[in-house]
Amino acid sequence: MKKLSLTLTAALLASALTTGCAPLLIGGAMVGGVTVATDRRTSGMQLEDETIEVKAASRIREQLGDRVHINVNSYNRVVLITGEARNEADHAAVERAVAGVENVSKVLNEAAVTMHSSLSGRSNDVLIKSRVKAQFIDARDLISNAFYVVVERGEVFLMGRVTEREANRATEIARQVSGVKKVVRAFEIISEDELARYAPKKQ
User: What domain of life is recorded for the organism (predicted)?
Assistant: First the structure.
């Protein structure tokens, strides 16, 4: 069963990396029941974030086509933009397109003004992301699904509703992962009391 799971994962990764006609990527495309149950957003908010991602990606594709390679990830209505735009005008246009999507509360434009990343570079980012998430799972003092991980050009972006203690711990772990060049925190900080009211207990 483990071998089959690894084979399916590799097939999905290969498919995603070789699809040249879809430069825009959105987060939350593969969500399991366990992830939904331990996510610190309400189910309604999770759905809203996915809707924001789809709408934002569609707007960027319609307005800019393949002139940009952009990844869109929304967490609690805060939208993180990563990827590449070839010039400042397109970079700004991407941000305007996302900001105009209904229910977006804030836009974090971390896209770089540079040439599009290579296939090998994107493959490496996927590998780094898997390493970071694995380290979060192994950390007994963290609930891994509380963290939303995005990796672009070796830079790790961390999102989620977490306490200052959790934010610091996750940042420390991510910085030690092989291949990570930089860690950018985009957390919504909550109190320990707020966490205690609804956070699931780690087994």
Answer: Bacteria
